[in-house]
């Protein structure tokens, strides 16, 4: 037995991993029994931590490496919009079914808890536009796979996929292989 606190790990180093870990509350049995929901609202509400995380993601990809950020509904919107603003590019919402007002592409997938469909406007991307795709949490990888597929079907060129937190035991990274995943915190 040791009472040493395990150190956070992630693809942008221990310091950023610790920032994400420090801004997360584990909520057991939400939205259903057996699921531990990773609530990142405290991170979003902490201006300094949120800025560190957003700046860390922009720094990971480097200047002028993407033309637009696609964020997955709903918490992905928060992160995507901030990254887009910091990088001086636009943002494209990848939405749940039935929310978009115009002609959309759609992709269905299975979640850790249920099934869902994502959509994006069919004219959301300019052909060859470099797209960074972001979400809050990577679990089984179904959501990410559908979002990445939609970007490509829409004509975008995926430059990367970033999440604040990856739940490694659900093997989303393996499911998305050979695409690479950039996760600030891996638990
Ligand atoms: P998945 O498709 O299984 O990778 O699930 C990822 C999507 O579901 C992301 O959009 C997350 O916001 C959400 N999600 C799945 N599991 C969790 C969890 N344990 N805590 C918070 N969000 C989750």
Explain what you see.
The structure is a single chain. This protein is α/β, with parallel strands linked by helices and 187 residues long. The chain has a single domain, classed as 3-Layer(aba) Sandwich (Rossmann fold). The protein is 32% helix and 32% strand. The chain is built from 6 helices and 9 strands, in the order αββααβαββββαβαβ. The chain has helices at 14-22, 41-45, 47-61, 75-87, 142-153, 172-176; strands at 25-28, 36-39, 68-72, 90-96, 104-111, 114-121, 130-138, 157-166, 182-186. The strands form 2 sheets. A 7-stranded mixed sheet has the order 5-6-4-3-7-8-9, sandwiched between helices. Strands 1-2 form a two-stranded antiparallel sheet. α6 (172-176) links the parallel β8 (157-166) and β9. The longest helix has 15 residues, at 47-61. The protein is globular and about 45 Å long. The two termini are 20 Å apart. The site of adenosine monophosphate has 19 residues, from β2, β7 and α5. Pfam families: Pribosyltran. Residues 60-171 form the Phosphoribosyltransferase domain. This is Adenine phosphoribosyltransferase.
Oligomer: single chain
N-to-C span: 20 Å
CATH class: Alpha Beta
How many helices does DSSP assign?
6
How many separate domains make up the residues? 1
Give a summary of the structure in a few sentences.
The protein has 187 residues and is of the alpha/beta class. The protein has 6 helices and 9 strands, in the order αββααβαββββαβαβ. It has helices at residues 14-22, 41-45, 47-61, 75-87, 142-153, 172-176, and strands at 25-28, 36-39, 68-72, 90-96, 104-111, 114-121, 130-138, 157-166, 182-186.
